[in-house]
Every structure is written in structure tokens, then in C-alpha cells.
Amino acid sequence: MSVGRTRIVALDTYDIRFPTSREHDGSDAMNPDPDYSAAYVVLRTDAVDARGHALAGHGFAFTIGRGNDVQVAAIGALCDHVIGREVEELCADPGVISRALVGDSQLRWLGPEKGVMQMAIGAVVNAVWDLAGKRAGKPVWQLLAEAEPEWLVAQIDFRYIEDALTPAEALELLRAGRVGSAERTRVLLDQGYPAYTTSPGWLGYSDEKLTRLAKQAVAEGFTQIKLKVGADLQDDIRRFRAARAAVGTELRIAIDANQRWNVQEAIDWVKALDEFEPYWIEEPTSPDDVLGHASIRRGVTPIKVATGEHVQNRIVFKQLLQAGAIDILQLDSARVAGVNENLAILLLAAKFGIPVCPHAGGVGLCELVQHLSMFDFVALSGSTEDRVIEFVDHLHGHFTDPVRMSGGRYLAPTAPGFSAEMYPASIATYRFPDGTFWLEDLRQLNEGVTA
């Protein structure tokens, strides 16, 4: 590392978009034409790493196309909080920047703690953790797992959640989680972390493609797949029948409605699919409707209810847990205010005994969220029972430290950082609207119109 105090000297943002809608990748009942996108941020420093490379922290918020420029602008609005800060201070205590950003009295008016600004804060906070991991020479999951419980508790904002989880309870959970952590680290490095795949189940795929990819998932070692549902019941019945024929009766099949239904509609629709034994119903209704989720859970049991990818903060997660509204908690690495808030959410889940099965897919979400689940296994819950990380085989090659899979399991990343760094060439190609891909796309469109 460079000698002396070093600082953040720039916050660079990029609007990165991929044309995934053209193959119906990512399509579901609410989002039929997503173009997976990243509102991307790079925190540049005046330091160098052990290899002599410029030290930088990378992060992003995930969107699905239109509006990504709004998300980029929100991230850029945070630059005054970041530029000039000492790298050593931020890496020693990422909570410093988390508290500064979440606590900004004027930014809070735009939320508070929700929506575009919350995701912007998450992108910057995650970039700080990426920087901290690189500076420490450790992947973020290991940085977290080896941290002292007192330090981890100090990273968390307990406002609004102390009626469900106190700092003392969090400390007790983390201290208990350290017992046996060395052995679990060896298990993780040897065996990886279990995954499930959504790749066969996009709503826009043909039955033939669904069947082919479902069989492929079984061959690759996955023990669970997921189907998108909710647009047309008869289509869902037909597609579910095809999936069951492809994978048999033993493999778990989850279903995901992406917030499509009203409460009673969700109950009736899921019951209509009961013959195919869905494992969980994900996002059956609005992510803000805590009591609606509770009603659905009572109405569809023993089918489990899962939600979380659009839950906007730790407070809503607290309420879902207090109301007994979910069986599976699906945190998202880029929806809330970064690692610090996700630590609170993991601890809430541990307190209530609810398994965490994170949302992933998208652009880079698999890369990020593996670190959170692996920390949870090594140093908090100590378990992978009924816990799986979502996997979607999209766009990993654009990252310098992409996820690695073997036998339907995530292999633990070993490179320092948060696995968030994209190749400069990918940024230059897919930057919107002036990346080389999009300029060529526009040229072809104009030539087609002219012809």
C-alpha cells in the first residue's frame, strides 16, 4: 500500500445497460421486457495496492433499463459526502459513511430510507466495503466473518428495530456465531454454498426451452429451480406440468409472482397450482403489504411464503418477521443501504429463526450476495439447512471476479473485495447511450429506418 494518509479523490458513475429483453431473459409477470442494468460507481483513491495498481472501490445499484439514468444521478448526488474522506478511516469503520449518508437530513426527505436514494446509498456503501476488502487483502465474506462481534454491532443502525432486536441481542447472536466458525470456513472453502437456479423459469421462454434448461439444471447438480408465474393461470399450469415432467417429483420447484396479485387472488392462484407441490411462493403481492403477506401465508400453508427483493429497508423486514408473514427472507445486496443494513437484516432473521435465501440474478447481484450468505453461514446462523442463494447464468463474464459454480453450489470467492468490479472494456461497450454496443445498435436502427 502507499505510505501515509490517502483519500477518496473521485466518485465516477456509469449508466451500464445490457439488452437482455431481446431474448426474454429476466422476463416475468410484472416485468416482461427487462434490460438488466447497473447504475455503477467507482470510488477512486490516491492509493495503490500491493500490485502497484490504483486502489478503487466498486459498487452498483441494479435496475432493469429505463430509469437507470435517474439512479446514476442519485449516486452522483452523494459525491460531496465521499470525496476527500480518508481511505483508512472508511475502511476501518464503513459505518462512518453509512451513518453520514443515511443520516443526511435533506436526503432523508426524499425517502426516508427507501427508493432511489436508498439504493444510491447502498451502491456507495457497498463500494466502500469493496475498498475495505481490497485494502485488507480479503474477500468481504471473510472480512465480515473474522471481524469482532462488537465491531459488527457498531456497524448497524438500530433505529426503529430495537423493539425486535437490541444491540445486546445482536452481540449475543454474533458471539454465538463465532463458535465453530473456523471449521465452517473450511467446509465453505471445500464444498461451497448451496444454490438454486431461476434460469429455466423466465416467463417469456418457450416450453421447449424451459424443459431443456430444467433438465440441464438437474444435470448441473441443482436441487431447486424456480418458475415465474402470475400472468395466465392456464399457462402456469401447463408450464409447471412441463417442469415437473423434466425434473421429477423430488426436486424443489419454487414459484415467483413478482408482486402481481391481490391477496385473495394470490391464495386462489397458488392453491390452483397445489398439485405440482410448489416449495415457496415468492412476492405474491406488494412488498409493502405486511399484513397481506401474513394472510397469504395462512391461506397457502404448507406452501412457504418468501419475499424481500423489493423490501426497502430493515424496518419492513422487521414487521414481516414480527407479523409471522414470511417463511423465507430474501434479502437483496443492492436494494437496501448496503452491507451495513443487510447485517441488521441478517441478524433479524437469525433472531426470529427464519432462513435467508437471497435474491440474486440481475447484473452482479450473484457476485455480491454470495458474500452475505457465506458470512451468515460462517459467523452467524452456522447453517445452510433450507438456505440457498439464487443463481442466474447471466452476465457474469463482465466481472473481474465472477461467481464460480460447481455441483449446484457457489464456490467461495477468494479474491480481495466484494466481487463488484467490472472490466473497463465491458463498461466502455455497454455504457448507455454512447458505449460501442449502443452506438452500433443505433446505427443499425437508423439504417433500417432509412432502408
Q: How would you sum up this structure, described in words?
A:
This protein is α/β, with parallel strands linked by helices and 451 residues long. The protein contains 18 helices and twelve strands. It has helices at 68-76, 79-82, 87-92, 95-102, 115-136, 140-145, 149-154, 167-178, 181-191, 207-219, 233-247, 263-272, 290-300, 314-322, 339-352, 365-379, 424-430, 436-450; strands at 8-17, 37-48, 54-63, 193-197, 224-228, 252-256, 280-282, 304-307, 328-329, 389-391, 404-406, 409-411. The strands form three sheets. Strands 5-6-7-8-9 form a five-stranded parallel beta sheet. A hairpin with a 5-residue loop joins strand 2 (37-48) and strand 3. Helix 1 (68-76) packs across helix 5, helix 4 runs antiparallel to helix 5 and helix 14 (314-322) runs parallel beside helix 15 (339-352). The N and C termini lie far apart (57 Å). The model has no long low-confidence stretch (mean pLDDT 95).
Q: Give a count of the beta strands, DSSP E runs of length 2 or more.
A: 12
What is the CA-CA span between the terminal residues?
57 Å
Which regions contain 5 or more consecutive residues with pLDDT less than 50? none
- Helices and strands, in order, run as EEEHHHHHHHHHEHEHEHEHEHEHHEEEHH
- Average predicted local confidence, pLDDT: 95
Q: Main beta sheet, described?
A: 5 strands, parallel
Helix content: 40-55%
Calculate Rg over CA atoms. 21 Å
**Structural class label:** alpha/beta
**Main sheet: strand order:** 5-6-7-8-9
Dominant shape: globular
Q: How much of the residues is beta strand, in percent? A: 5-15%
The DSSP helix count reads 18
